[in-house]
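ok so I'm stuck.
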Amino acid sequence: MAQMTAALVKEKGVTFAVVLVKDYILNSTHQADETIRAVALSLGCPLVVLMGESNRKLRGNRQDVVNFVSQLHPSQLPWKKWTI
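replied:
not stuck anymore, here's the structure
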């Protein structure tokens, strides 16, 4: 079993997940895409934004959601530990 830190957010009728990942995952398109797919399946939430743990870079599968998350401070998100 693996753990992740993620926030499920519902804004204007759209539900999406923001997940903290190691910074190196965001440096690889392949790794980021694989992580997004795995998180979407695990949480049952097709919209996913990855956030680097240290650098706070963002990558997701829908640009408008990424743009929305970029306007938020991480402390505004409802973080929770998930076991998958």
